[in-house]
Amino acid sequence: GIPGVPAPARVQDRLLRSPSSHPAGQEQVLHPKYRLVVRITNRDVIAQIVYARISGDFVLESAYGHELANFGLKVGHSNYAACYATGLLLARRVLTKLGMDQDYQGVTAADGAEYHVTKGNRNGK
């Protein structure tokens, strides 16, 4: 380069400096993408709904496998069934937090009947 004249900034450098300086980066910052993060430890399951901002990652809601003891599951807080139940617990918490829990009731009375989803069958049986 010429001494005393700053070199022109490359587009990649500008994108790395600030994602909000690029239109695609602004979309990513303004409209967060929510992700389900699941961590399975030897004794617990951790499920979180996470979204990213410029200032860092934020957790919308979380649920832990050891909380299943409050619902009658005393042991096995990191097995396959506990992962499923922790995911359901997280889903209910997110729906409640967003005010959508009345729109998505889930199964109100567990009768043990089989439920099959088929194209022509509207009642599911």
Give a structural overview.
With 125 residues, the protein is of the alpha+beta class. 26% of the residues lie in helices and 19% in strands. It contains 3 helices and 3 strands. It has helices at 11-17, 23-30, 80-97, and strands at residues 35-40, 45-53, 56-64. A 3-stranded antiparallel beta sheet has the order 1-2-3. The protein is elongated and about 80 Å long. The termini are far apart. The model has no long low-confidence stretch (mean pLDDT 82).
Topology:
Blueprint: H1 11-17, H2 23-30, E1 35-40, E2 45-53, E3 56-64, H3 80-97
Antiparallel strand pairs: 1-2, 2-3
Structural class: alpha+beta
Give the termini separation. Answer: 75 Å
Mean pLDDT: 82
N-to-C order of helices and strands:
HHEEEH
Give the DSSP E fraction (strand runs of 2 or more residues).
15-25%
User: Which overall shape is indicated by the principal axes computed on the Cα atoms?
Assistant: elongated
**What level of helicity do the residues show?**
25-40%
Strand tally, please? 3
Main sheet attributes: strand count, strand direction, barrel closure: 3 strands, antiparallel
Task: List key phrases describing it.
single chain; 125 residues; alpha+beta; three-stranded antiparallel beta sheet; 3 helices
Write a short abstract of this structure.
About 25% of the residues lie in helices and about 20% in strands. With about 120 residues, it is of the alpha+beta class.
